[in-house]
Design brief:
The structure holds two protein chains of two kinds. By secondary structure, chain A is mainly β. Chain A has four helices and 23 strands. In chain B, strands 13, 14, 15, 16, 17, 18, 19, 20 and 21 form a nine-stranded mixed beta sheet that branches. Chain B is globular. The chains are: A mainly beta, B mainly beta.
Chain lengths: ~350, ~375
């Protein structure tokens, strides 16, 4: 008796249902006879819709080509004229894990109590839907800091799905809000914690990570000052050299924003091309030019959206105490530029 | 549909996101991977529905069966109700990673049947909503695409195809259409800000839309920005009521504001600790407008808009937490949509399954 099998038709995956003389006697297909395929779903009562797809004739066989591909490890039931005639399970392909966490950022050892954001960088594109259950904050005894992370169904990825942004719950950091008053900060000064990425976090092929990854941080005091570029120390290069411009900050800045918020313009007003690098602990930045520095006036242009690790930007502090004159926002429309003459 | 600038085409929707209906049965779909909003004519010619409720148990299992996968591979990103037929449209991400597909499913109001809405050769328009990476922007990942994605680049004698993808992205959290404008709230994966984008529809060249930078004050003392999680147009679109990732309900005027304007909203309520607002709708009960908010940890919260109008900005550092509200015992509700004047449609999780259930507005 010819069996219902996984097969291909016209280069597409299908379920092949033989209907010739050697077919299962229950398979009496013909015009008007209904062929349905559905996934086996446990604990569901009632009639469920048939799987979306097309039926194609191939010789004496009927082929079901699904609208959306069959899923590895899933069992499908094939029915003809309302009678179940076959149960097929897609083989599960066990792939060897190859993806790693490249880094957890920031790299600074001591973060402020009001740390807002960490980034997790992966070595290969990842799947969505795992972040909430596989990125955790734990203390040194391995106990999870419950409710420390902002829980959302909107995962924050870069377009390539290589970098995940993880927010600490802003409602617990912002002063004055009920969650802050009732539950308090997610972090405690002097109490170290770890950001843990579990290996169950699957990459885009559905394969777990090679191993667990973590970064341990110490917790310091709050950081609630605006980022003030005028307070940075610049080590400026001489004209005619390929020496880097080095910029030392007064505190660690956000790793993600640093990579796009700083640009150098030369005497002709054009951007100086070069290799930009963020220094250890996100406390510095340097630009090594591709061509020798021109003589004349240069500017380091700072996009005012640049933030530190606690979400304070050049324009404004994360939560502004209206009674503090020094927290007055800086005009968002003005680009900040630090100049020097080479 | 040409009056709305729609042309026959095939929207390349890569990731399922928030959806909302606009004029003439046009559905807006946000795609957070492609950083685009699509407007499509879903061609729903179903008969006009009345005031009856609509319920469908185990909608997640039905979707899984239709899409040929397990319920774990069905992520319901949003629901929207067609304004005339009251058919329910479900924005679903089927599968994960490389296997993930964005699917739009229509649930028939009359018989509860499900069907895939084929997004192929139908009247459509699209608008890029992300800040597209510029050539000189170093903040892009450049890869060699497998297919014909990306763009051609000449390197010496050779022509190669490259794909540039931004590292900075913006995720749409909610959308609403009011009087010729699509309002789009989003969340950045880098800076922490609160921008509401106001995009004219029909879509133009993308230049005319504007960004409103929104702040709110907690207890008269701390002014902050925060990404909007969900919002509803209010006062005929002259203002919005928004809930935040950090729980307050805030009232903002938006009429007459121009691009780049900073506006400070009035915090009218807080929804409590360890809780995320998930969705909200406005509905009418006994002639009075009300707001219904779905929450991650609380039941449904109902607020009378009259109370919002008279609520002074919250100024006391310790309770009360704003306007009077009633917390319903309806739990597990993650999405809300107006079904008709008599019912609000809710996506509710109960007993390990997700169901579509009508909530009678008169009884809320």
């Amino acid at each position: 008796m010819a069996a219902v099998t996984w097969s291909q038709v016209g280069g597409e995956e299908c379920v092949r249902i033989p209907t010739g003389p050697a077919a299962d006697e229950r398979v009496q297909t013909g015009p008007g006879v209904e062929v349905r395929v559905r996934p086996l779903l446990a604990d569901v009562a009632g009639v469920l819709p048939a799987m979306a797809g097309d039926l194609r004739c191939d010789g004496e066989d009927v082929c079901f080509v699904p609208r959306f591909g069959f899923v590895d490890g899933t069992t499908y039931i094939v029915s003809v004229a309302g009678v179940d005639v076959a149960t097929l399970t897609r083989p599960r392909r066990d792939r060897r894990p190859t993806t790693d966490v490249v880094d957890i950022l920031p790299t600074v050892q001591v973060v402020p109590r009001n740390l807002l954001r960490v980034y997790v960088r992966f070595s290969a594109p990842m799947s969505e839907g795992y972040a909430a259950d596989h990125v955790r904050l734990v203390d040194d005894d391995g106990r999870e800091l419950a409710g420390a992370l902002f829980s959302t169904d909107h995962e924050l990825w870069d377009a390539a799905r290589l970098r995940l942004t993880v927010l600490l719950d802003p409602a617990r950091i912002k002063r004055g809000l009920a969650p802050h008053r009732e539950v308090g900060y997610p972090l405690q000064p002097g109490v170290p914690f770890r950001v843990v990425v579990d290996p169950g976090f699957c990459d885009a092929s559905g394969t777990p990570l090679r191993e667990r990854h973590e970064r341990r941080y110490d917790v310091g005091d709050d950081e609630r000052r605006r980022v003030v570029p005028e307070s940075w120390a610049l080590r400026t290069p001489r004209a005619g050299t390929l020496d880097p411009l080095e910029v030392a900050f007064d505190r660690p800045l956000d790793h993600g924003l640093l990579a796009r918020c700083l640009t150098v313009n030369g005497p002709d007003g054009r951007r100086v091309g070069g290799t930009a690098e963020t220094g250890p602990e996100e406390r510095s930045w340097r630009l090594t030019p591709h061509a020798r520095w021109a003589a004349g006036r240069h500017h380091l242009a700072v996009d005012p959206v640049l933030e530190d690790v606690a979400g304070n930007s050049v324009t404004r502090v994360f939560d502004r105490d209206l009674s503090r004159a020094e927290d007055q926002p800086r005009d968002a429309g003005t680009e900040v530029a630090l100049g020097w003459t080479a | 549909m040409s009056e709305y600038g729609l042309r026959i085409g095939t929207p390349d929707v890569r990731a399922a996101g928030p959806i909302t209906f606009g004029p003439a049965g046009i559905l807006f779909l946000a795609d957070n991977e492609a950083a685009k909003v699509f407007a499509v004519d879903v061609g729903d010619a179903g008969p006009a529905a009345g005031a009856e409720p609509f319920d469908l148990e185990s909608v997640d299992a039905r979707l899984a069966s239709l899409l040929g996968c397990g319920p774990d591979d069905v992520a319901i990103r949003d629901i929207a109700v067609h304004p005339t037929s009251q058919n329910v449209y479900v924005s679903v991400q089927r599968g994960r990673g490389d296997a993930a597909r964005a699917v739009l499913v229509r649930v028939d109001r009359l018989d509860g049947s499900l069907g895939v809405v084929e997004l192929r050769d139908l009247p459509m328009a699209e608008l890029a909503i992300g800040d597209a990476p510029a050539w000189e922007d170093e903040r892009v990942d450049i890869t060699l695409p497998q297919g014909d994605e990306g763009e051609e680049l000449k390197v010496g004698e050779r022509t190669i195809r490259i794909l540039r993808r931004p590292i900075r992205t913006s995720t749409v959290t909610d959308m609403a259409y009011v009087d010729g404008f699509l309002l789009v709230a989003g969340l950045s994966n880098e800076e922490f800000s609160s921008k509401l984008r106001r995009i004219p529809f029909p879509f133009g060249d993308g230049e005319a839309d504007n960004n409103l930078e929104i702040f709110h004050v907690s207890h008269g003392q701390w002014e902050t920005a925060a990404p909007i999680r969900a919002f509803v147009p209010y006062e005929a679109g002259r203002s919005i009521l928004a809930t935040y990732t950090c729980t307050p309900v805030v009232h903002f005027p938006i009429a007459g504001l121009t691009s780049g304007t900073k506006t400070v909203g009035r915090t009218v309520a807080e929804l409590g600790a360890m809780n995320q607002p998930l969705d909200m709708v406005a509905f009418t009960q006994a002639g009075e407008e009300h707001l219904l908010i779905a929450n991650s940890n609380h039941g449904l919260i109902k607020i009378a808009c009259h109370d919002i109008d008279v609520q002074e900005p919250l100024t006391e550092p310790k309770g009360p937490t704003g306007v009077p509200r009633e917390t319903g015992d309806l739990r597990g509700i993650t999405r809300l949509a107006n079904l008709n004047g008599s019912h609000v449609l809710a996506l509710q999780e109960e007993g390990g399954r997700r169901h579509l259930r009508s909530l009678k507005t008169a009884s809320l």
